[in-house]
């Protein structure tokens, strides 16, 4: 699919994604160390910088005027016309300017912040960190004209220690300038390519399109919160926890890293939800024993799902003559995950994924984080009886993941490896970037009990021979980073041709029988879906999740007998799939994830009417007829598998 923009010189655009030479002050580069979520604690403060930022798109022929004229050296308003832009939000749908809707290239954001004097004073002064939850796709950040960090990737956090830039400054003003580029190449995640249209009889001068091989809109901008936070000069940099349980005892193994001091002491306390200390330990590496633990259970598997303990880590460190203290509290869920040849076990009990695929997508704000939308979606998930979702097709915001932990929603945590179709996207350059992305993802989400499996990609061209080495390497690397969780990728390849499937722990397969294949012929679903499952299981002897299935439906469009795009056809397709699921989930099918939770925006095309309509909810979160079919099914499955007294209804355990 193509996203068009005009007025850009070809030679200039080809250089857009070439990393600029970094002239960083010592200690300002992005470190491959901890990425603890910023929290207010007795030793730490945080300030969100949401609201209106100054914004300017670089409309120069080469999209390079901002760098040539050094817009970061002075307030952005002094460089030319700026507009207000909300953060977090995608910039595409905010204005009435169609050129911004489909803009490709560099855009510039700026925010001026007055800092509390206490953040800049002291001996030693606090450490001051600037953190972005995500910005799509390639970001370069300056503070008061000094470059502090650059980051590739649109769905994971990055940060920079900016203490040395600001401390000692005569004015407590922090001017944050961000340049963001949404250009995708064959080596980005997700990949894309720029195509230049040279036929002057058909296209304007310097016309190009951004081609992508994924079916959602390439929204861009600062999508998640921007935060300034402080820590002491010596601080807790990272925490890693893993949990095991047997009989009436659970073990929480931990590892804590400290930066800024070698003369320090660490103490840890694990508290239950009533604030009672249930275990203590000292030192950077060790374990805590919990008697009669409250385990973390998924929604509808237990009367108290999503149980979280609080692990309080306290650091005392000597820095010069000063004795510093740092405190960080990490939510901890005690649970185990194990995969057999036919089951997915959570805490030793079989778990069946009855859930959804989602997108971070909504009217106006695009992929921008929106608390009202997030809470609405979780209320709909629980109304639906869904116990899980996949973060299709990129890591979701930490705020969403927090609620998954708290509500007991099991997550298949997916990398932005979607649209890997071209042979050059399987080369070493792409592979090395993919490995780095998995490191960032695991570092961010490794402690989350809701994350029960990693997915490294969605629908790659895994039938290509280079896919064997590529996915063997990515999956092995992910397992080395986190041996405690299974790893998969989602395939739509033929079972006999898939070069990546031998390396996954769970087979996740997408299919759209009677939609993209044999459109309109619901009668072929039983035969084709049954053959799909039997062929995959016979070949690999691994449990299978139907990771996508579904049909577009236009709300209010009705047809009986069912015809494609009607609400009745969507209902009928679901029922045909469900009949096969019910037979095979008695054997080795361990889950079903509908595509999609809600309608979402895509590029324009002859098969897309204002986006993809496969949602069981509209983009505005109103239910279609299929939502009630799925709700009845999910609550029925929950009742069958639950050991809760009394029998669960669709009204218990909700609200």
From TrEMBL:
Question: Any idea of its EC number?
Answer: 3.2.1.31
The record's comment on protein family reads: Belongs to the glycosyl hydrolase 2 family.
* Gene name of this polypeptide: Gusb
From its record, what is one biological process in GO terms?
glucuronoside catabolic process
A Gene Ontology cellular component where this protein is annotated is: lysosome
Q: Which SUPFAM superfamilies match?
A: (Trans)glycosidases (SSF51445), beta-Galactosidase/glucuronidase domain (SSF49303), Galactose-binding domain-like (SSF49785)
Q: Which InterPro entries does the UniProt entry name for this protein? A: Beta-gal/glucu_dom_sf, Galactose-bd-like_sf, GH, Glyco_hydro_2, Glyco_hydro_2_AS, Glyco_hydro_2_cat, Glyco_hydro_2_N, Ig-like_fold
User: Where do the Glycosyl hydrolases family 2 sugar binding domain residues begin and end?
Assistant: 49-232
Does the UniProt entry include the keyword Amino-acid biosynthesis? no
Q: What would be an example GO MF term here?
A: carbohydrate binding
Keyword terms of this UniProt record = Glycoprotein, Glycosidase, Hydrolase, Lysosome, Signal
Name its species. Prunella fulvescens (Brown accentor)
**What does this protein do, in the record's words?**
Plays an important role in the degradation of dermatan and keratan sulfates.
Q: What is this protein called?
A: Beta-glucuronidase
What range(s) does the Glycoside hydrolase family 2 immunoglobulin-like beta-sandwich domain occupy? 234-335
Q: Where in the cell is it found?
A: Lysosome
Q: Does the keyword Glycoprotein apply?
A: yes
Q: Which residues form the signal peptide?
A: 1-30
Give every Glycoside hydrolase family 2 catalytic domain span.
Answer: 337-638
Subunit info? Homotetramer.
